[in-house]
Structures are given as C-alpha cells and as structure tokens.
Amino acid sequence: MSPSRVRKQVDGALLSFVARQRPGLLAISDDLAPVMAALDALLGEGKRLRPAFCYWGWRAAGGDLDEGIVNAAASLELLQASALIHDDVMDSSDTRRGQPSVHRRFEALHRAQDWPGDATAFGEGTAILLGDLCLAWSGEMFETCGLDDDRRRRGRAVYDLMRTEVMCGQYLDMLEGTRGGATVETALRVVEYKSAKYTIERPLHLGAALAGGGPGVAAALSGYGLPLGIAFQLRDDVLGVFGDPAETGKPAGDDLREGKRTVLVALTLERATPAQATALRRRLGDPDLDRPGVAELRAIIEETGGLAACESMIAEYAHEADRALAAAPITHEARDALAALAVAATARST
Amino acid sequence: MSPSRVRKQVDGALLSFVARQRPGLLAISDDLAPVMAALDALLGEGKRLRPAFCYWGWRAAGGDLDEGIVNAAASLELLQASALIHDDVMDSSDTRRGQPSVHRRFEALHRAQDWPGDATAFGEGTAILLGDLCLAWSGEMFETCGLDDDRRRRGRAVYDLMRTEVMCGQYLDMLEGTRGGATVETALRVVEYKSAKYTIERPLHLGAALAGGGPGVAAALSGYGLPLGIAFQLRDDVLGVFGDPAETGKPAGDDLREGKRTVLVALTLERATPAQATALRRRLGDPDLDRPGVAELRAIIEETGGLAACESMIAEYAHEADRALAAAPITHEARDALAALAVAATARST
C-alpha cells in the first residue's frame, strides 16, 4: 500500500470504531453528544504518524495485507488522542490541531449555556474523562483488531511497555519543566521516552511483533527509529518556537509561553551570555508573552547559536537513522516507505 | 474461599503486579520513585469491593479455584485507583482513603522541594498521569491474568463496556453538578451508570463471563447487582454528608463542600420549603463550608425528611437485591458470600 492509502485505511478504521461506539453512548444519554463531537473534531485532524510507523513495522517484518493490522495501527491514534487531550489540560493549552483544545471547548460550552457551576473546572474535568475514554478505547480497539490471539499476545507486550514509557516520559518532562535547570542530557532523556520510543520506535516494534518478527528485525528498527524519533522531537521543538501557526495548529511561540524545557532551550542556555540567559529564563513560561516577547526570545535562541546547534543535531540524528535504514534487513518497499516517513517526520514545515 | 481469603489473594495479586512494574520504572529514572510511592499508598487501602464482586460472579457461574480469576478481579482495583485519582482532581478533593489525595501529595512535594514552577499544576498533572498509568495497567493486568484466550475474550466485552459506562456516568455526574437542577430521576440515572453498574453489576458480569456463564446467570446477577448498586451509592451519599471521617477517610460533610448533586440532595430539595431550598442551594458547593455550615445543611436534610426518604430507598433497593439473590440459580456458597457483600456495601458505617 502507498503511504496515502495506509492513511486512508487508518482513517476509515478509526471512523468505523467510533461509529460502533456512538449508539451505545447516546443510548446512555443525549447529553453525551457534545463529548462525541469533540472526539470527532480531534480525530478529524492529525498526521497518523504512529499508525504509519506501526504499519510499516509490520510490513518490514514480513506481514502482508490484512485488515487486522490497520485496526491495530489505528488504535495508536486513540492512544495519541488521549495523550494530547490530557497534555493540553496539563499545559493549559488553548489550541490543538488548529482548533480549541478539548478543555477549552467544554469551558466555552459551559459559558454559552450559562450554567451556574465553574466553567474552567467543567472543561478540565470533561477533558480528563474524554482522555480516559480514548485511552480505554485504544486498548479495546487493539484487542478487537481481528489479528489472532498469538499475534496480539506478542504485540501486547510492546503495547503495554509503550504506554508505561510514554506516561513516565511525560512525568519526567513535567518535572524538568517545573524544577527548571534541565541540561541537554536530561532533556534528551525525556525526549527518548516521551517521543522517540513512543512516536517511532515502539510503533515500529509493535507492527513487527504482530507480524511475528524476531529480535533481529526489532534491533534494526530501533537503529532507525530511535535516532529518527529524537530528530522528530527536536524538529517539533524548533517548530514550537519558530513554526508557522497555520502549519503547527498552535499559536506562534506557544512552547515559549508554556515554558517547555526542551533540548533547544538547553542548547541555548549552554551558549548564552549571563544577560541572555537571564532574559530567557525570565520570560520563558510567561503565559502573557506577546508577539514582541516571542521575537525577543527567538532572537536569543538564534544569536546564541542554540538554533544552529539544534538543527545540526537534527541533521546528525536523521543521518544516523538513514544509515541504519540502508543496512536494515527489510524489503525494498518497507525501506522506501520508512525513508519517506523519515523525511516527513523531520521536515522544516509540517 | 472465604471473603477475607479472597481479599488477601487480591491484595497479593496487586502487590506482585506492581512489584513486577517497579524495576522498569526505576530503570527509566529514580525520579519516578515518588510516583510509585503514591500508588503504593493508595493501593494499601480500599475495600476491594469490585474484585470481590468479580470473584463471586465467577463462582456463581460455576468457576472454580484459579489464580487467573484473582488476577482478573484484582485488575479492577487498578481501574478504581485510576478513577479515584482523576475524580479527586476533578473535585479538588484534599483527601482519599484517609491520606492526602495524589494531586495534593505532589503539590506538597513541589512546595517541600521549593521548585520554581507552579505547585498546583504539578500536583494535578502528576495525578492525571498516574491515573492514566493505573488505567493502562488495569488493562494490562486483565490481559495477562493467566486465564485462557476464550475466557478473556468473553470477559473483555464486559470489561470494555464497564469502562465506557463509568466514564460516561462520571461525565453526567459532573454535568448535573455544574448545571444544577438535578431531579431524583436524573440523579438516579447517574447512579446507575457511575456506581451501580460499575461497582457491582459489571464486576459480577465480568466474573460470570470469564467463567463461561450464560445469559441466565447474567440476568440473575443483574437482578441482585443493580438494585444493590443503587443502594450502595445512596448509602455512600448519606455517609458523604453524615459519615464519621475516621471511617470514610474524608472530612465531615465533604460531599456538601464539593456540591455533589446526589439523590439525597434531590430528595431534600423535593421536600424543602422555599427558605430551606434557598439555604441549601446557597451553601452547597461552598469550598469554605465550616463545621457550623455543615451542621446547618445536615439539619435541613434531616428536617425536610430527605434523609428518611433516602434511608427508605436504600432499604427498598437492598430488599429487592435480597429477593433476587434468594431466587438466583447459583450455588449456596456464592449466595452466602453475595448476601454478606450486600450487607457490607449498604451498612451504616463502613
């Protein structure tokens, strides 16, 4: 299948899973219709990166065309929806994928209905519950994907590990953010668990395990997936500061406003003069950071050489992934697809 | 097995599941030790009601002694831990099971460490992530319980339904709380999904499905479980207003401070004079409600006859459950155990 065909199939699998759930929810109460609408809106967007890596991990390990792998791969998009919804609560993000975040959406519903209770708490509570529902449904979609018990048992070990790793990575990310003082080394550890394994390495491993691939294939996929995953997250960090809102779906400089302690920030602080470091630390995480404030911090990140250092790390990790891919014992078709995914995951625009 | 022996086995299964996870987390980072400690503290307490109903549903449907059912039943306690941790964030509860709630625990850690970031946001973020981890682990523990694929497939359908129902029920509960004006009827619908199905009916069905029980057993267990589940929640509502903190693990009158729109409150408002209704509505949900305020609201709930009406509903539902249990086509041993659980679930003290 071509990458665009994989994407269409994943979209179709997600739509039909959600369509199977909808009547049950509405039978409980019509009041659940806005919850389903919020999920529809979120799932309508997204690059389906994790399902794509899962599918090509399967093909790389010799899996053939099977509806079951599409369902299993698509279940990762529900896991990702859960992570995004909860992340946005934790980061107080206003937007996601170019739309209001789920908690803001329900805060707005509360205000529009003029209900007497606390609109913010209602928005956050709904987002916590919808994120929980997506997490439960991702497991349900995986287990009911249609692949046989033996394949699922092998895949489940990866699936379980991946969920634990990403949740731990998110905790460490938040911890580094709140206690400050992240070094390049500690920021990279967060990147490894929160992004590189979760977004690329484990989806590849999941697909390969479902296909019955052995440790050799898994190791080859790690050789490609881990460095690519790091490059992917570093690219995301750069886009979070310098990206075009029309492409990122987030306001310009949103990562600066959220105070994320990224590798990019750590690289900048390593290179900053005391005055630059003080200025960066003072404004980083300021929720009221305006356009001139964003411009000021962008200038520091460029002038210190932090941006150039980050771009050079991205290039190195992407190159390492390329080399590993070239040597991997997989089919031409899988190699070509994974090479194309590597370009998409690290491109300067999304 | 005697009820206390079931409890010991469930405790043991939980301890060993968490013990298997611990090294993996600490290998990611020592910084995860406080997260594991918070989980240990929460799992150290609790009545294990849902595992008990699951186990006796299994026995009622003819299941025999098997380590697998203990693991499957114990996995419900991780699901419940997830629900409690997230509930406490949504309700801004300070305590749970006689200890600080998870979000307060990490807020306190943040302050004790004098970290520069926002302590409240750190506490809530950690609680969201630990709740997610417990939800993921409950699925993992269920799938790796040791029962064979066919049994798990039958049980999984119930497990999936139960998770969806409880999350929807929690949303409806929050919705009724925030928009006010809950009637006895709407409050009872919330009780059905949030409590009666989740705490009693579905755990019984899960056990029965795992044992291979047919629709006859499931219907008999519903006849007992649904009314008992309603009685259980109504008892919980009464304890939330009138209960002894030493027994409930929550401060006196905590449900009043959180503004819960319970059946007890709806019954009171149905019977209140305009002055009583105004006074109750005015103070319900006041986070600063002090001891005299709690006493004032308790007096209204008693004087209107709301409390007596609620106690009479509890007695009726409990009686309905008793009758259904007497007629259920199950073994004497299961019937005796379920009768004892019914008494424990609706007792005036915990």
From TrEMBL, chains A, B:
CDD domains: Trans_IPPS_HT
Keyword Transferase: yes
Domain of life, source organism: Bacteria
Cofactor(s) needed for function: Mg(2+)
Keyword Transferase listed: yes
Keywords: Magnesium, Metal-binding, Transferase
InterPro entries given in the database record: Isoprenoid_synthase_dom_sf, Polyprenyl_synt, Polyprenyl_synt_CS
Family: Belongs to the FPP/GGPP synthase family.
Protein name per UniProt: Polyprenyl synthetase family protein
The organism of origin for this protein: Actinomadura graeca
